């Protein structure tokens, strides 16, 4: 039962997948606008998710050198269009900072 999912609860931290990276790429422009930075290095490394009326994700992104950013993202259910929206971003994170929770937006 180590990977038991509680509906509405957050999963444990997991290694990022190809799908996680695709979600990060979908919100990259929004991230760059909010942080006023251009990211040459932008690689999802860890994530947590929560199944609600869609999927909320907290994602740790490696941004080069020793820089990390944390993203809070919402992905609609496929039947609702599957759109991805950036809810929040935190800069100045390190490799060792835990992901989330984010303040409510």
Structural summary, described in words:
- Pfam families: Cystatin (PF00031).
- The chain is 16% helix and 37% strand.
- It is built from 2 helices and 5 strands; from the N terminus they run E-H-H-E-E-E-E.
- Strands 1-2-3-4-5 form a 5-stranded antiparallel beta sheet.
- The protein is globular and about 35 Å long.
- The protein starts with 13 loop residues before the first strand and ends in a 12-residue tail after the last strand.
- The mean pLDDT is 91.
Helices and strands in order, then pairings?
Blueprint lengths: L13 E2 L2 H9 L1 H8 L7 E10 L1 E9 L5 E8 L8 E10 L12
Antiparallel strand pairs: 1-2, 2-3, 3-4, 4-5
On the 0 to 100 scale, the average pLDDT is: 91
SSE ordering: EHHEEEE
Instruction: State the shape.
Output: globular
End-to-end distance: 32 Å
User: Residue ranges: pLDDT <50 for 5 or more in a row?
Assistant: none
Structural class: alpha+beta
So how many helices? 2
Family: Belongs to the cystatin family.
InterPro entries: Cystatin_dom, Cystatin_sf, Prot_inh_stefin
GO molecular function, one term: cysteine-type endopeptidase inhibitor activity
Protein name: Cystatin-B
In short:
By secondary structure, the chain is an alpha+beta fold. The chain is built from two helices and five strands; from the N terminus they run βααββββ. It has helices at residues 18-26, 28-35; strands spanning 14-15, 43-52, 54-62, 68-75, 84-93.
């Amino acid at each position: 039962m180590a990977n038991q999912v509680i509906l509405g609860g957050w999963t444990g931290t997991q290694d990022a997948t190809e799908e996680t990276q695709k979600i990060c790429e979908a919100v990259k422009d929004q991230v760059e606008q909010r942080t006023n930075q251009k990211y040459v290095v932008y690689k999802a490394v860890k994530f947590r998710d929560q199944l609600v009326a869609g999927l909320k994700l907290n994602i740790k992104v490696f941004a080069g050198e020793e820089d990390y950013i944390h993203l809070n993202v919402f992905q609609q259910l496929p039947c609702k269009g599957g759109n991805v929206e950036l809810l929040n971003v935190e800069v100045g994170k390190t490799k060792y900072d835990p992901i989330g929770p984010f303040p409510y937006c």
